[in-house]
Amino acid sequence: METETKPAYHNIRTFDQKNWISQNLSYKKDTGSWAWIFHRISGIALIAYLFLHVYSLSPLAQGETAFNNKMQVYMTPFFMVVEWILFAFVLFHSLNGLRIVIVDWADGSNYHKQLYRWSWIIGILLFIAMGVLMFSFELKKFIQ
Amino acid sequence: MYKYKASKDTGSKSWVLQRITGLALLVLMIGHYILMHYQPDSGHTYQAVLSRMQFSWYRIIDISFITLGMYHGLNGIWNIFRDYKLHSWAKISIISILILTGLAFTAWGYVIIFSIPYIN
After folding, report:
1. Sign for the pseudo-dihedral over CA of B92, B95, B101, B104
2. Which of A25, A72, A141, B28 is the most buried if burial means most Cβ atoms within 10 Å?
3. With bands split at pLDDT 50, 70 and 90, how would you rate the model's confidence at B8?
4. Mutate to test the interface with B, among A47, A68, A139 (most CBs of B within 10 A)
């Protein structure tokens, strides 16, 4: 007597596009998942900034006074902090990008977690260094 | 029969280009940050930009920087959309918008770079 058995692929849960937010949130996230999520967010932020960057440098075509007036706005503390945060996105995206290259290379995937930790450590150190570099001139101006 | 007919392009060329441009951008970005931030004036005054732009090499570097950045960034955005199942009309609209805005802003960048005069 033959019993009707369903093929194995009937048990595979396919991606449910209608509930993708809850599906994505319920998925257990490990090192690689977070790296992927942050890489994506920082990438979107950076391309958005690149468009802004072209726009913000457009007064270069209008000569010296127009450009310097515009730059005065960007040299205020608020924009400097925004610039500094932008550097955090640049740092994460470049260090994690380098990590992806190493992970794909030879046996790099064996130590992708260490590489992720190192990218955060190097990133935070460079972020602080850039903060010192950017704001030391402002502090000197403030003291004088 | 050909209900799920898709592009024959596996995306492998795009993958390689994304990696190469990414590595190139990493090198360019290090130079860019040193150049712009070793002094607060170096990136934020017209005189500094003007004196740099007297050397055509800086113009060439800036042009390749913006071209590579636009390609890498917009190809990255396209890769995000490729993760989702989209109707072909949506795919065509999205990729058209990406290419057109990319070309427009790259051209705008070129115009800005070439608008800076040679003074000698």
Report:
1. negative
2. B28
3. confident
4. A47
